[in-house]
Write a structure and sequence with these properties.
The protein folds into two domains: about 160 residues, no CATH class; about 110 residues, no CATH class. About 30% of the residues lie in helices and about 25% in strands. It has nine helices and ten strands. Helix 3 crosses helix 5.
Length: about 280
């Protein structure tokens, strides 16, 4: 793997690449005694708002929670007895592309000047800024389940806080042979937009499906299914990275993570190289 990938992957869980305050073992322990506030998007008609209100009652069971506005978040965020699930715009230090991302984060309340100084328990990328939220909102239950399970995992294994978390999750790639991989066609490139093309590199079960079928598999917690979460510029930016994450529909673990720079030869989506890597026995 590229050296920068390790940095980016660590950022998925602690945002160290954007100077977010790293959480401590005490932060993880204290979290379970907090009330969690879920912060709505400013746009009242956003798909994010609809989906987060739909999935939280089905998934979240580690703390009491309440859904609030951004204004209420600003009023409450300094209180350490609260935790927050919130989206924010972030950039990576030393990223020459200057790309801006929308992240979903679980933060601890803290009496600090701004959100970047709040202890970060878990963060995952949702999309590039300006990409419509309907490109990821249908997978929201999987993201929330991952955040919750990840916090439980780290709380039980605090040594993971300072370790290469990518190394921990990367071992799951060996389990793909027992799963059915669900792909949405919009997340595929011209070299991978059919089952026959994918099968030339990937010998395991794979289906090209609708967003609704992915959402249903996540809701059913189908243990036989993994799905792709692709974070790409979607035509909003040419000089950019395309991130590819394969996530379990039931366990919400990461089974594969990689990225490539978008070029005329390497478009925004899954490449044959990705399937070759995942298909190695």
């Amino acid at each position: 793997m590229k050296q920068i990938l390790s940095t980016i992957v660590v950022c998925l869980f602690c945002l160290s690449g954007i100077s977010q305050k790293l959480s401590t073992e005490k932060d993880y322990k204290d979290f379970f005694d907090t009330k969690t506030y879920v912060v709505k998007d400013e746009n009242p008609m956003s798909d994010f708002n609809f989906m987060i209100q739909k999935v939280m009652p089905n998934v979240w069971d580690v703390t009491d929670y309440e859904i609030i506005s951004i204004k209420e978040f600003e009023e409450k965020r300094r209180d350490p007895s609260y935790s927050f699930i919130v989206t924010s715009t972030v950039t990576f230090n030393k990223d020459k592309t200057k790309a801006r991302y929308t992240f979903l984060s679980l933060l601890m309340g803290a009496d600090v000047a701004n959100i970047s100084q709040m202890p970060d328990l878990c963060s995952i990328p949702l999309s590039y800024v300006r990409v419509e939220d309907d490109s990821y909102a249908y997978k929201m239950e999987g993201f929330i389940r991952f955040i919750q399970d990840h916090v439980k995992l780290v709380s039980s294994n605090p040594s993971m806080i300072n370790s290469n978390i990518f190394k921990y999750y990367n071992k799951n790639i060996q389990s793909l042979k027992d799963k059915t991989l669900l792909l949405v066609k919009d997340d595929l490139t011209s070299e991978t937009n059919s089952i026959s093309k994918i099968k030339s590199m990937y010998p395991y079960n794979v289906k090209i499906v609708s967003q609704k079928e992915v959402e249903d598999a996540i809701a059913a917690e189908d243990d036989n299914v993994v799905f792709l979460h692709k974070v790409g510029p979607e035509g909003t930016k040419y000089k950019a990275r395309c991130y590819k994450i394969v996530i379990g529909a039931a366990d919400s673990k990461f089974y594969y993570f990689d990225y490539h720079m978008v070029t005329p030869k390497k478009r925004d989506g899954m490449l044959l190289k990705d399937f070759k890597t995942m298909g190695k026995k």
